[in-house]
Design brief:
Helices cover 49% and strands 8% of the residues. A 5-stranded parallel beta sheet has the order 2-1-3-4-5, sandwiched between helices. Strand 3, helix 4 and strand 4 form a beta-alpha-beta unit.
Length: 272
């Protein structure tokens, strides 16, 4: 497979640590880059493909590696209780080591307040990761943090000689541009502003309240930007409203669940 003419971004993550974060980041980055530029295992490996060869090929071609580091990244263990990063065959470790050996841009992306490990906490092939400039993504400012990350990636790709990404549905703001493009869009027709996709609420309610309803909220939220880019404004608004609705239902279900649990605990304690 040839190298993407606009550059390729590889998303490295551990499922047990940042599966939903990786999905949210992948969807949000599509505001700034095409799907063909973004490599994440679930979207870029087709049924029947050799996933080892697919990943190896993508790592050989990629220009930027994003290393997603959450609270469980460093201490993740396998079925035998061994720290995964100490296993030379661990895929997360192999991907990072390969990118570091190629001397491409490797960007640690710290999630939910996670801290960069110290060099002595990492196996030798990964220790130089701690010298790479990191970025932080907080759920409360998710879209703004991802926008800043996308700006940094675009600068990296431009320095590598790749062209900009014309035709992307949502342009990157810059100090010379209006940071809120919606009034400019409205000046060229009666175009409604893009609704908030409520993705952050979907992620939070999935993690903290009710998994099934939270997942439905995330699915609806992931549709908003694509529908808006296709000028399906009413459908985009409905998807945003549904995402918010299911997130609120998840909060309610979670509250009811915790209330029932508290009552059962109190009844159990009274019996003793």
């Amino acid at each position: 497979m040839p190298t993407n003419p606009n550059g390729t971004i590889f998303i490295n993550y551990r499922r047990e640590d940042s599966n939903w974060n990786a999905l949210a980041l992948y969807n949000e980055l599509q505001k700034y880059f095409s799907k063909e530029q973004l490599f994440k295992d679930f979207n870029a490996i087709r049924p029947g493909d050799d996933f080892v060869e697919s990943i190896a090929g993508a790592l050989q071609r990629c220009d930027v590696l994003l290393v997603l580091i959450g609270a469980k990244w460093l201490d993740a263990i396998d079925t035998t209780g061994k720290q995964r990063l100490t296993d030379p065959d661990d895929f997360v470790r192999l991907e990072i080591a390969k990118a570091l050996s190629r001397e491409i841009k490797v960007v640690p992306v710290m999630l939910d307040g996670a801290k960069m490990p110290r060099p002595e906490q990492l196996p030798e092939p990964l220790q130089s990761l701690t010298r790479r400039q990191l970025v932080e993504i907080d759920p409360t400012r998710f879209e703004d943090d991802v926008r800043k990350l996308a700006e940094a990636i675009r600068r990296i790709l431009a320095e590598a000689g790749y062209p900009s990404n014309p035709g992307q549905p949502i342009p990157m703001p810059s100090p010379q541009q209006n940071p809120n493009p919606e009034p400019l869009q409205q000046a060229f027709g009666n175009i409604p502003p893009k609704p908030n996709n409520n993705l952050v609420w979907g992620i939070l309610t999935t993690l903290l309240c009710c998994l099934p309803l939270g997942i439905v909220s995330i699915v609806q939220a992931s549709k908003v930007d694509a529908l808006y880019a296709q000028h399906k404004y009413s459908e985009a608004q409905k998807a945003a409203d549904d995402a918010k609705k299911y997130a609120l239902w998840a909060v309610g279900a979670g509250a009811v669940g915790w209330l029932i649990y508290a009552i059962l605990v109190a009844i159990g304690a009274a019996q003793y």
